[in-house]
Amino acid sequence: MQNQIFELQYALDTFYFLMCGALVMWMAAGFTMLEAGLVRSKNTVEILTKNIALFATACTMYMICGYAIMYDGNLFLSGIAGGETLVADALAASAENGFGGDSVYSAASDFFFQVVFVATCMSIVSGAVAERMKLWAFLLFAVVMTGVIYPVEGSWTWGGKDVFGLFSLGDLGFSDFAGSGIVHLAGAAAALAGVLLLGARKGKYGPKGEIRAIPGANLPLAALGTLILWMGWFGFNGGSVLKLGDIASANSVAMVFLNTNAAAAGGAIGALLVARLIFGKADLTMLLNGALAGLVAITAEPSTPSALQATLFGLIAGVIVVLAILALDKMKIDDPVGAISVHGVVGLFGLLIVPITNSSTTFVGQVAGAATIFAWVFIASLIVWSIIKVVMGLRISEEDEYEGGDIAECGMEAYPEFVR
Q: CB–CB of 46/405 below 8 Å?
């Protein structure tokens, strides 16, 4: 009877991992729709191509070497599917600590759940460099980012390894439940390095420093993308509980879902209100980024806050993201979709508020973890971007930028029946 109960738990936890992974994979559609909506129509095909290609690249590179780097696994995942002894081996290991202890699931489901996180991290970069970066330069960077840069910092955090053998972030009291820093801050750091080398879009800033708005072509699509991301985030945070097969875990999953939704709602409200105060109007793009900011902020610790605390954290994140977008614009850091503000600035905020509700963490540890992640990803990315710039260039020509990336990079238009 005990074996049958264990096998049911094993099957349930594996199925939960796979379904949450599928939800996170759906976030790729959200990023694709959001970015396609916030760029101009002449760059739509290019951004769609970029997002689907980066997902395929991330899945392949993480299989080839990323997973092995992050968790000391086998290259090409040899043996990860297991065999007839898989359940028996897991049963023996679990019996040592008692049933209902550690998570028990198929190793293949673990890889699937991890690989969609890698793709999410790379998707953050896509929007920030939109409308002026060469497609193949971006995809070449994606190979290194998903195969090496992300797995290395992931090995120091979720992988439990010491940072270059010097110190352990876990020993310092660092915690990042589902990746405010490990995924989102990392993606923003890579994006920032690329944007600094790339420069702003033509016409974004005037000769006297004035900021010129460049509206997106399809705001309904951007709104749909945001709602898809909101939905996918339940898998992102909920799956990070790693388990569902006992009462305590089920309660934790429910609380994570509740807090994830509450923070997104708070972020949307916060951004909408502060945008109204600043601009005198309800700004849809700020509303969308506010919802995403709330989601990013709660990702570092969605299990310990109360629902009210999660809402307040999200509301503050919504205010922060509007101010951050305006600040980066004043610094002439051109980010067409606000990715660096949403995932970087708010990702840092999410890490720093973890000790408020999780007493096992320390503020010093959170700062150390954030600094380590940012420094490694930013410096490594800056080096890789710089090499790509020398070898093949990062930016499309001024003429191609004027005509649009669709024709220059992909040879087709998203809306050929319309004349620009």
A: yes
